[in-house]
Design a protein that fits this description.
Blueprint: E1 3-12, E2 15-25, H1 41-48, E3 56-61, E4 64-68, E5 71-72, H2 75-81, E6 82-85, H3 97-107, H4 113-126, H5 142-149, E7 162-165, H6 175-179
Parallel strand pairs: 6-7
Antiparallel strand pairs: 1-2, 1-3, 3-4, 4-5
Helix pairs in contact: 3-4
Length: 181
């Protein structure tokens, strides 16, 4: 089992958004969380990646507790093993496409610059951005920004135990080709 969630809770004041959520994910399993706007889908994803602290419950990743007793445990392991792809592009405006894609490899995975450069070139090729490697976000079209922001290196999908994605349907072009590594 990759991910096990037990009794996950999140409140905003008196509003209980996540009410004792339980589920398990096996390797290779894909789960879609559906619901109306404001029903807690984004809150669930943010809590699973500890971008928001849950109010209660337990989260296990590969058999290791990463949240329990009301507090996160070993966030470095969680960050290395759980990728998060945001709904908006979230590219750094002062960085080139190459720098935006390689930053997670360098900062989270502590990979050497030469490896990152080669790997980034491979990833940008897979999403048809190899000719834009030195361009900054303001010089990319909306579709190019989207592909760059959701490339496997940018979302830290290389390698991952679990990937959390908000509205993945918005960027399906080249998505499966780029992520099947």
């Amino acid at each position: 089992m990759i991910l096990k969630v037990s009794g996950l809770q999140k409140r905003y004041g008196k509003l209980e958004v996540l009410k004792s959520i339980d589920f398990e994910l096996e390797k290779g399993e894909v789960v879609c969380v559906l619901g109306p706007s404001g029903s807690g889908k984004s809150t669930l994803l943010r809590c699973l990646n500890m971008l928001e602290k849950p109010d209660g419950g337990r989260i296990e990743l590969n058999g290791n507790e990463v949240f329990g007793d009301g507090k996160p445990k070993d966030l470095d392991v969680l960050r290395r093993e759980v990728g998060m792809v945001f709904q908006s592009f979230n590219l750094f405006p002062h960085m080139s496409a190459e720098e935006n894609v390689s930053i997670a490899q360098r900062k989270v995975r502590n990979r050497k610059s030469d490896f990152c450069k080669d790997r980034t070139h491979e990833l940008l090729l897979k999403v048809d951005l190899e000719d834009k490697i030195n361009e900054f976000p303001d010089r990319l079209s909306g579709g190019q920004q989207q592909r760059g922001s959701r490339s496997p290196g940018r979302s830290r999908w290389t390698p991952k135990s679990c990937s959390l994605t908000k509205s993945p349907v918005r960027s399906t072009r080249n998505w499966s080709k780029a992520c099947s590594m």
